[in-house]
Specification:
The protein is an alpha/beta fold. The protein has two domains: 192 residues, Rossmann fold (3-Layer(aba) Sandwich), CATH 3.40.50.2000; 154 residues, 3-Layer(aba) Sandwich (Rossmann fold). The chain is built from 17 helices and 13 strands. A seven-stranded parallel β-sheet has the order 3-2-1-4-5-6-7, sandwiched between helices. It has a six-stranded parallel β-sheet with strand order 10-9-8-11-12-13, with helices on both faces. Helix 1 links the parallel strand 1 and strand 2. Helix 1 packs across helix 17. The longest helix has 23 residues. The chain is globular, with a radius of gyration of 21 Å.
C-alpha cells in the first residue's frame, strides 16, 4: 500500500467544503491522504464528507460536544486539544511518516492555525489553501485576520486565490512557494453541488415556486447589535411584501430573535420561510435560485460572486474582494446602503463565472509534487 504523505487538518465544515474538491481530485488520481479532524465541528455527520468517502475521518482529536460556545470556551478547547495532539498524531501515523509529509490547512479558523503549528512542530511541510486574504485590520474580522497571518508564518506552500492575495503575500515576504490558483476552490464545490439532486424538500419546493430572496445574519458582531437586528428585520419584512423572504436560522440567530421577541412574529408571518441550517449542496441550490441575497457570511460572498447573484454583504469590512463593485455591495455600517441595494438589486446581476482551470486540480497537482520534493 502506498504510504500517505498528505494530511488534511480540518476543523470546521466550512473548511471541509473548500477542501472537498481538492481531496476529490486526489481520490480520482489514486493518491492516498489522511483526514485529521480537530473536533471544532463534527465532520462525520457532514453530507460533504459523506459524498467524499462515506463519512470517514482517520483521526479525531476532540469532540465538538465538549466545547462551550463562547470565546473563552473555544480558547480553553484550543489549548486542551493542542496539549495532546502531537502525541496522538505520532501514535496514529508514526513520526517517520509525518516527518517530511505535507500538512494541508485551510482558511482562517483557530483550527487552521493549530494544524499549521502542529505540522511544523512535527517536521512537516505546511500547505495553506486560501492563503493571502487580508482585511489589514487585526481586530476585524476577529480572530480570523490573526489566524491567517500567523498561519502564513508557518506555511511553506501558499495557495492564493487570485492576484490580490498573491500581492498580499509578496508584501508580507511570505517564505516558500506561492501558487496563484486564480479562483477559490469554492467554485469547484459549487460546480459539484449543481451535479447532484436536491435532497431538501423545502428547498426544492421554493425553487419550483414563486420568487424569493435569502437573508442570513449569524455573525456575533451583528447579532450583538440589537438595533441593527431590529432594523434589518424591519427591512426584510417590508421587502417580503413583494418577494418571499427565506431566512436561515443559525442557532445563534434563532436564540437572539427569540430573546428579542421577534422569532414568534416571523414564524407567524406567511411571507417568511424560516429554515434551519441547510446542508451545503442544497444551500447552494437555494442561493442559486434566489432573486438576491443579504448575508454576513464571507464564503457566501465568494459563492455569490461566482453565481453572479445580487448580494448585499452585512459586514463593515471584508478581507475578500470577490464581487465587490460588480454583483456585491458592502453594507459598511450604513443602513442606507441596505435600502439602496434592495430598491435596485437587479442592477447587480452578472453572468456566472466559468474558470479556465479548476483551482482544486491546480492545488492537487502541486501537493503531489510537494510530496516528491
Amino acid at each position: 500500500m502506498q504510504q500517505r504523505k498528505l494530511f488534511f487538518f480540518i476543523g470546521t465544515e466550512a473548511e471541509l467544503i473548500k477542501l472537498f474538491p481538492v481531496m476529490w481530485q486526489l481520490t480520482q488520481k489514486g493518491v492516498p491522504y489522511a483526514i485529521i479532524a480537530s473536533g471544532q465541528n463534527d465532520l462525520k455527520t457532514s453530507s460533504v464528507l459523506q459524498a467524499l468517502n462515506g463519512g470517514r475521518v482517520d483521526l479525531e482529536l476532540s469532540d465538538e460536544k465538549t466545547i462551550r460556545k463562547t470565546a473563552a470556551g473555544l480558547l480553553a478547547w484550543y489549548f486542551s486539544t493542542w496539549r495532546s495532539a502531537k502525541a496522538r498524531l505520532t501514535a496514529a501515523f508514526g513520526a517517520d511518516a509525518l516527518r517530511g509529509g505535507v500538512m494541508v490547512v485551510h482558511g482562517d479558523t483557530v483550527s487552521t492555525m493549530m494544524g499549521a503549528y502542529l505540522g511544523r512542530s512535527l517536521g512537516m511541510k505546511v500547505a495553506h489553501v486560501e492563503a493571502g486574504l487580508r482585511s489589514h485590520n487585526w481586530l476585524s474580522p476577529f480572530p480570523e485576520e490573526i489566524d491567517r497571518v500567523l498561519t502564513s508564518h508557518k506555511a511553506t506552500l501558499h495557495f492564493a486565490p487570485g492576484p490580490e492575495a498573491v500581492e498580499n503575500l509578496r508584501k508580507a515576504r511570505a517564505k516558500g512557494r506561492v501558487v496563484d490558483t486564480e479562483y477559490n476552490t469554492i467554485i469547484d464545490s459549487l460546480a459539484y453541488s449543481r451535479s447532484v439532486p436536491c435532497k431538501n424538500e423545502a428547498v426544492q419546493a421554493l425553487r419550483d415556486g414563486t420568487p424569493y430572496f435569502v437573508f442570513v445574519m449569524h455573525r456575533q458582531e451583528n447579532l450583538a447589535n440589537k438595533k441593527l437586528v431590529e432594523a434589518m428585520v424591519a427591512r426584510v419584512t417590508a421587502q417580503a411584501q413583494t418577494v418571499r423572504c427565506v431566512m436561515i436560522l443559525h442557532k445563534p440567530t434563532e436564540v437572539t430573535l427569540a430573546q428579542m421577541g421577534i422569532l414568534e412574529k416571523l414564524q407567524a408571518d406567511p411571507r417568511f420561510t424560516l429554515l434551519p441550517r441547510v446542508e451545503y449542496f442544497d444551500f447552494m441550490k437555494l442561493l442559486d435560485g434566489a432573486s438576491f441575497v443579504i448575508t454576513d457570511g464571507g464564503s457566501n460572498q465568494e459563492e455569490l460572486a461566482y453565481m453572479g447573484k445580487p448580494c448585499l454583504i452585512m459586514r463593515d469590512r471584508t478581507e475578500r474582494s470577490d464581487g465587490l463593485g460588480e454583483n456585491a455591495r458592502l453594507y459598511g455600517g450604513d443602513l442606507q446602503a441596505v435600502d439602496d441595494f434592495v430598491r435596485d438589486y437587479t442592477r447587480y446581476r452578472r453572468p456566472a463565472v466559468t474558470p479556465a482551470q479548476s483551482p482544486a486540480a491546480c492545488i492537487a497537482d502541486a501537493l503531489c509534487a510537494a510530496t516528491e520534493d
